[in-house]
Design brief:
Layout: H1 2-18, E1 29-34, E2 39-44, H2 55-71, E3 75-77, E4 90-109, E5 119-137, E6 143-156, E7 158-160, H3 165-170, E8 180-182, H4 188-211
Parallel strand pairs: 1-3, 1-4, 2-4
Antiparallel strand pairs: 4-5, 5-6, 7-8
Helix pairs in contact: 2-4
């Protein structure tokens, strides 16, 4: 029974970590965001949603959401208006890279049981990879790396023969012979940038919680 409980606890821990759930710190912590060698990359097979000309807007969405999300864990970014007032711990998050990827998978399906020829789709998946190094200061004031934080967030179009809510209500598509194709919101890379920031804040909070 104890082994089973440990396995359940371990499974929940992994699940919570993957869902981007952080830990609120008992004492406030302050963090400097820097990007000494930060680089952005664009890896596209198709340009349906990703706009490289909007790179600054994507990064701004990341920055704004990161600051907001860190505050929910009692972590504050050091800037002109936010400075530690006492002996609070100060950390550094050195952002390394951010990769925007847009790929597709070619699929052909018969959209319903009456179709005589297949329809062809390029089903798109959008994702962001981001990484950074988290540091603390030792007694000599030197930066010591605690952890490298890396994560991926993604969202994809859907081509599915699963019954929709309305098909269930009206009793349609019981044999799952009809397909539906759902595209993404045109601003999907904004929302993915914000999601990446929330996950980065959550991972950072869990690391700093252990260090306090």
């Amino acid at each position: 029974m104890k082994i089973k409980s440990l396995l359940v606890y371990a499974g929940l821990s992994v699940l919570l970590a993957s869902c981007g759930i952080g830990k609120s710190l008992e004492k406030p912590a302050y963090i400097k965001i820097q990007s000494s060698v930060f680089q952005t990359y664009f890896d596209t097979e198709i340009n349906k949603y990703l706009n490289q000309n909007l790179e600054n807007e994507y990064l701004s969405a990341l920055e704004t959401e990161l600051e907001s999300s860190l505050k929910t864990y009692n972590i504050y970014i050091i800037n002109a208006g936010t400075e530690p007032s006492g002996d609070e711990k100060i950390y550094v998050l050195d952002m390394k890279n951010m990769t925007f990827t847009e790929t597709y998978e070619a699929q052909s399906v018969y959209m319903d049981s009456m179709a005589t020829s297949p329809e062809y789709f390029e089903v798109v998946t959008c994702d962001i990879d981001i990484s950074g190094d988290l540091y603390k200061f030792n007694s000599r004031g030197e930066q010591v790396k605690i952890k490298t934080i890396s994560l991926n967030v993604d969202k994809g179009e859907k081509l599915s023969n699963s019954r929709t809510f309305w098909q269930i209500i009206f009793g349609n598509n019981k044999d799952n012979s009809e397909y539906t194709y759902k595209e993404l919101d045109e601003n999907v890379f904004y929302s993915l940038s914000e999601k990446a920031a929330r996950h980065m804040a959550a991972k950072t909070s869990r690391t700093l919680y252990k260090d306090q």
